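Need POT family protein's 3D structure for a figure. Predict it.
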Amino acid sequence: MASQPSDAHSPQDEKKLSLEKPADSVDHVDQSAVLDGIHDGLVFPTEEERKTLRRVADTIPWNAYLIAFVELAERFSYYGSSVVFTNFVQQKLPPGSHTGAGFADGQSGALGLGQRASTGLTTFYQFWCYITPLLGAYIADTYLGRFNTVIIAVGVALIGHIILIVAAVPGVIEHTSAVGAFIVALIVMGLGTGLFKSNISPLIAEQYKRTRLFVITTKSGERVIVDPTLTISRVYMYFYLFINIGALVGQIGMTYSEKYVGFWLAYTLPTIVFLLCPVVLLIGRNRYVRSPPTGSILLTCLRLWRFAAKGRWSLNPVRMYKQMTADDFWENAKPSKQGDNKPKWMNFDDQWVDEVNRGLKACGVFMWYPIYWLTYNQLNNNLTSQAATMSTHGLPNDVLSNLDPFALIIFIPICDLVVYPWLRRVGVNFSPLKKILAGFVTGAAAMVWAAVVQHYIYKTNPCGYSAGTCADAEGNALVSPLNVWIQTGSYVLIAFSEIFASITGLEYAFTKAPVNMRSLVMAVFLFMSAISSALGEAFVSLSADPLLVWNYGVMGVLAGIAGIVFWFHVRKLDAQEDQLNSIGPGHVGEPVDDAGTSKI
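Structure prediction for POT family protein:
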């Protein structure tokens, strides 16, 4: 994100943007330097203009919206199915029911394995969905390309959805065989989801092809700089908006389908919507910008790192850390510095080395995300279970989780069109790393809210610290008189944390990765959620009465401390934001001259 105290254009200015070359433009970058069919004829800013002109985002191309719709349909199917997983696993099949429906006054359920089992299985599913992106990234970058890998991912996930429906149909749901079918469905769906997620995110951002700052004049006469970094940020803001439209509609519809019809319908409807994915992908296949596979770049990257680390190993950990993080670590590994001793495998230019350095710095930022995701993951299990112990007044207990995507749908446009422009106008540099810090803070606050609510649930429930299993002599659940809408604070705070941390993480993964490793770096970002799910398994013992206050409190404290340490770790990197964004694409796998410059 740009560090100048400039402002993104208002919605009114958006309509006034003109690509006419200003009559008074002088002292600009030589136009012939960028004759690539993308930047031809554009006017580039002088150094003075970079510091003084207001910065705006460019228009998002329409083919990006097509891919965003594919993501909407996929997220509808993902969240529409998974929102009812907790009840499917935890709660018992209602007496006399063959579908799991609880109807107006009952609690929907199926397998009756309890809260710890439901938390364990849903956490495993999250872990699996976020470890498989590494495989998807490798396949895409090395063999098939992103678009083709997404097509395969859709087919795999569709098979998983069909197995999930089988686990919930009458005649199966009443028997223990439903457990096995459900677990197989999770594994197959998670594989398809992982192959999809690592490639759809970079694919949408690649639809915008400009990479350099350029100057335009609005119809009002103002000269402004169009910043590709702001444009990529906007692409991911609205990409996330589409995600949450799909999640909101899917979750609301499926919670009521589960409650009044049964789990088979709650799993069938998402599958039908999911079928829109291959249709839209194939219809628009000739419109999409597609990056071809580049071979095993990962091996070249590892060789480069090993070459750069040569002679820097030490038994003294302090000395080794200093040598491995020295300013000349990557500089001495550039091809131009090797002279006649350049290895044969070093078939890349100096600029690609800078890209790899930048990408690894981004991965270092992502290493803090597992702690953040611990707070977000409470949405999928424990907060749903908490709602079941409160007065829902006829609402399905898992419908409250929809407050998160609902809040995101409202606040994403507000942040993009009002909050962020206002901050730039008053001179506040709300850079990507500062946004991530804000995500940690708001995530921690959400957990504090949940801990306080849980404390009062225990105080007001007829069974005290056994609120989750409280029932009368006839087996009817006894709940706290607290209104379930008190949970709103947790969901809204988590939504803000997603705007700051999750969206920015997608943006950071794309903009900081080497061009031919974008799927891989995106997969590393997603993999942090898998690590978080694994860490979450360690806290499963806290996911039951009477320890739930401790569960939320520990999550909040961890996120708060991690946010503080995170900022001390990245504050120097934050100052280099513009410098990192200015690194252009390098070349690998092409002939380079002795100066380390691509000959192509």
